[in-house]
Amino acid sequence: MSRVWNFSAGPAALPLAVLERAQREMLDWNGSGASVMEQSHRGKRFIAMAAQAEADLRELMGIPADYAVLFLQGGATQHFAQIPMNLAGAGDSADYVVSGHWSAKAASEAGSYVRVNVAASSEADGYLRLPPLDSWRLDPHAAYVHYTPNETIHGVEFHAIPDVGGTVPLVADLSSNILSEPLDVSRFGLIYAGAQKNIGPSGLVVLIIRRDLLQRAGRPMARIFRYAEHAAADSMLNTPNTWGWYVAGLTFQWLKAQGGLGTMAERNRLKAELLYQAIDGSGGYYRNPIEPSARSRMNVRFTLHDGALDAAFLQESEAAGLLALKGHKALGGMRASLYNAVPPEAVQALVAFMRDFAQRHG
Ligand code: PMP
């Protein structure tokens, strides 16, 4: 077996222990004589597993009892639309903070269902820094405020939860940094995340919503789009992504065994620090363009001093067992994603490779 160090932005690396356990349980899950993918979500075994996954996530994140936890489908992108459908009524407006590709997309998709007020944007700065909090033009009558704590493509991250006042619910797309550190869930009205970075396989969305928001009328729509219906049916309104839910549950158990989110936060901080120090200490050979206070711990962008070396860097890094360092096509350059399942050894190997490459291609 040859496993590589995987820096993919998503779908991304999963913990080796999770993959090995899923492999062990593949043919005969939980003494059932069949795989988890081959049995009813209405069966006793699956329902018990699903409840345990939710309980483990609640424990890990400290999710208060007045929040519902939903295991849904559609990717984060579907919820760009479904959130305004559920939280905004006819004629309502919602505030969007635009700090990179994904928050811009969330705002543009929401526009079909709600009047979008771009309360702040760092687009004119090339998304190299975050829109300063004192520049946010928030509407006290907005249905909600939406922001994206970590921008996966642009590599910028909010390191504190913005204070948007007490009355308008804060909605956050945590797709690329959920579970990377402890989070005060009570500060949010709604949190959502596509699973394929820090949770498990793609095709699953974890959505955490304060229960009073389930009462919002939204607009007339089919039941399948309504979060209140999913909550009332324990996320089994229709057939859920059973495999995704199962692997997510294994990841939550793995996180608990690691020591929880405090341990992950410290590990993630050290990983990012090691890579940023290697970039900043390279004498300009490598560069990260992001304002230091806004740098992402999860997605580290860098360019080489000479773009003509990109192809060699990618080819040699792959040959050295370092996978998926190519940056997003919109930005070029490189990107290393350092999610929970990427161990410190992977970052050490990357940094050693970068030093070696710079010496050989000086
Ligand atoms: N939001 C963020 C922050 C993301 O990183 C991504 C995917 N990379 C998305 C939304 C879109 O997710 P999906 O493909 O699951 O719709």
TrEMBL record:
Cofactor: how and how many bound: Binds 1 pyridoxal phosphate per subunit.
Family: Belongs to the class-V pyridoxal-phosphate-dependent aminotransferase family. SerC subfamily.
Name under which the protein is recorded: Phosphoserine aminotransferase
HAMAP family: SerC_aminotrans_5
Domain of life, per lineage: Bacteria
Pathway recorded for this protein: Amino-acid biosynthesis; L-serine biosynthesis; L-serine from 3-phospho-D-glycerate: step 2/3; Cofactor biosynthesis; pyridoxine 5'-phosphate biosynthesis; pyridoxine 5'-phosphate from D-erythrose 4-phosphate: step 3/5
UniProtKB keywords: Amino-acid biosynthesis, Aminotransferase, Cytoplasm, Pyridoxal phosphate, Pyridoxine biosynthesis, Serine biosynthesis, Transferase
Function: Catalyzes the reversible conversion of 3-phosphohydroxypyruvate to phosphoserine and of 3-hydroxy-2-oxo-4-phosphonooxybutanoate to phosphohydroxythreonine.
Locations listed in the record: Cytoplasm
Molecular function via GO: O-phospho-L-serine:2-oxoglutarate aminotransferase activity; pyridoxal phosphate binding
GO cellular component, one term: cytoplasm
Catalytic activity: O-phospho-L-serine + 2-oxoglutarate = 3-phosphooxypyruvate + L-glutamate; 4-(phosphooxy)-L-threonine + 2-oxoglutarate = (R)-3-hydroxy-2-oxo-4-phosphooxybutanoate + L-glutamate
Gene Ontology annotations of biological process type: L-serine biosynthetic process; pyridoxine biosynthetic process
Location of the Aminotransferase class V domain: 4-350
List of residues that carry N6-(pyridoxal phosphate)lysine: K197
Chain positions recorded as pyridoxal 5'-phosphate binding sites: A76, T77, W102, T152, D173, Q196, N238, T239
SUPFAM superfamilies hit by this protein: PLP-dependent transferases
Cofactor names: pyridoxal 5'-phosphate
CDD domains given in the database record: PSAT_like
Subunit structure and binding partners: Homodimer.
EC number(s) given by UniProt: 2.6.1.52
Organism name: Rhodanobacter denitrificans
Amino acids binding L-glutamate: R42
Pfam family, one: Aminotran_5
